[in-house]
Fold:
Amino acid sequence: MGFFDSLIRSAGRTIGREAGRKAVNAVVDLIDGDDDKKKKTSTKKTAEKSKEVKAEKEEQTNFEASSPMAMAMAKGKSEYDTTPDMPKPFVNFNGWLCIKGGTPQKIIKALGLKNPQEANWESGLEAASLNFMKKVFVTPMINGNVLVIGYIPFGVKNSVKEELEILDKIADNFNEMTCFATQSTVDIHVWAKYVDGKLKRGYGWLGESGEVYLNKGSVSPEEFRLGYTNLITDTDCDWDTVTIPDMEHVFAMAKEWGIAPDLSDVNPEEGTGYVCEL
Structure:
């Protein structure tokens, strides 16, 4: 005889068999209800805990992906050639950053780049070129700068305001950062310079839509020296009296502000950088 049958018989002697059965069944239903409630509560708590653990793991993964330890671990475990080589020109790229006051590790973390893998110049540039807008090459230190080649600042993906917000956050981590974009198909040519996290000068032309894409800050001494004092700033002007920027203007400004894509006036040294995913 089961426990609940004995309970029904005992209750039946006191309040009648039928009434006793109903009373016991009511108690059973109450217990079952409590158990279901407890199970649901437990399931909910387990799910919430699982989400917390997953979020913590993702955060830890993102942190570790850009930590010095991860950089060290990436060495020797790369799908790219890691034999140190001399810097290679990158004149065929549409955009890059040039950063002073930061290590490759710090730059990778500040930009939120993923899956860093050690690579020399040749294999790193090749990977960034073949994976346009998906991968970049973060170079070793060169003349006190680190380049992020393949990173397209002021492209046509976001509005100028959105681009500036992104670059402002990145620049806030470094002493100086210059940004360059140049592409002949849409005829976009841009240069910008941040000092101590503040945009000091930015100029950009988007020929596809015939607009001055960016014009912030005073004309820089370097622009004066290059003779860029009559760049187009108003499309209602007499176009015969103004200068329409092109790729050569961007390359010249890159040389003035940091590293020219042809690597002229650079004291190169062998080294390796990192291929990273955007």
Summary: Strands lie at 95-100, 114-120, 135-138, 145-149, 176-183, 188-195, 198-206, 211-216, 272-277. The chain has a mean pLDDT of 81. The chain has two domains: 3-65, 82-277.
